[in-house]
Amino acid sequence: MRQAWRWFGPNAGVSLDNVRQAGATDVVSALHAVPIGEAWTTAQVHARKSLIESTPTGRTQLTWSVVESIPIPDAVKRLGRAAKHEITAWIESMEALAANDIKVVCYNFMPVVDWCRTDLDYVTPTGSTAMRFDHNMFAVFDLHILQRKGAEADYSQANRDIARDLYEAMGAQEIADLTRNIASALPGSTTEPLTIPAFRDKLAAYEGIDAHRLRQHLIEFLEAVTPVAENLGVKLTLHPDDPPRSLFGLPRIASTEADYAALFEAVPSVANGMCFCTGSLGVRADNDLPKIARRFAERIHFTHLRATTREGDGSSFHEAAHLEGDVDMVTVLRELLAEDRKREKANSIIFRSDHGHRMLDDLDKEVTPGYPAIGRLRGLAELRGIIHALDAIALA
Prior knowledge:
By secondary structure, this protein is α/β, with parallel strands linked by helices. The chain folds into 2 domains: 2-117 and 207-395, Alpha-Beta Barrel (TIM Barrel); 131-200, no CATH class. Helix content is 42%, strand content 14%. It has helices at 16-22, 42-53, 74-79, 84-99, 135-145, 157-169, 172-183, 196-205, 211-232, 257-266, 278-282, 289-295, 329-340, 373-395; strands spanning 2-6, 26-29, 63-68, 104-107, 119-123, 129-133, 235-238, 272-277, 300-305, 307-310, 317-320, 350-353. The strands form 2 sheets. Strands 1-2-3-4-7-8-9-12 form an 8-stranded parallel β-barrel. Strands 5-6-11-10 form a 4-stranded antiparallel beta sheet. Helix 2 links the parallel strand 2 and strand 3. Helix 5 crosses helix 7. It is globular.
């Protein structure tokens, strides 16, 4: 398996030498400055690739091997194949990547909001901080800040009572922080930052779109792009929903084994694959991660390895250290390695240590939420150790 590192570019505070020092050889990046829906050009991709791969004398070679992500515009999710202009632009971006020999593309199909957290610096027992999804604080936003029509039906009376009490005790800055965390697009998001009025307008545009219809729109998108991807030798990897359940009354359709099975059956092209994210899928207790990895092994080209801890209410969770929490990382890696050993080196599974605790010197710095250098460095080192041990056992 090839060790990768997500890099947000030269202004993100993490240098390419930092990536090398972490032990990674592959880079996961994207052209975040290009507006959502606008086609990436070959020249733009080449400029980023040159920045990553132009190696100073004596330094370890890095390779931009995965793009995460080409954003799928909102129109595609709402309209499916009817969003012809947006799908054409997406294909042009993929072609620009292939022309630069970047052949793994990650994407997601989450409507309105991308990955979602209520707290970006939840203090753990070690004094490091982690990201957290607090179901009650989410209800505060949904019921009292966003004031979504019909939201009450999605929460128990106990949740509604707790949310009311929490909201009444919050100050203006706490309300602003919660709103920013949920509505303003977290790093790497493929959805746009939203004001509260714009958020309501986006939700209204999805009225009448249920899980069946949203899945059909994803299938229509895949029917348009996978033949091109297959001809280009590109592997498309669908990232799971995060969290893997409905938010704001909107359907989410990449949350379970059954969800992925339906998509692979509908579009069986070899280009139609998955980004196996243990953190996102692991939030659901009914997702058997080793079983999912084993069933879809040939479809896994890119993986995010992280762990989450499900909290007592069954809906809240926080990011755990990579070898802790509710993910059986050793067993998951055993399944991934078994598949990887069958492949030629050029098609090896690419993985990155996803997210990480904010710790040590990073506690005193402005860091990208979810992507502090030291926490991810620790995670990558731990994952590398497990991989070495499992390889040694397999060769014994």
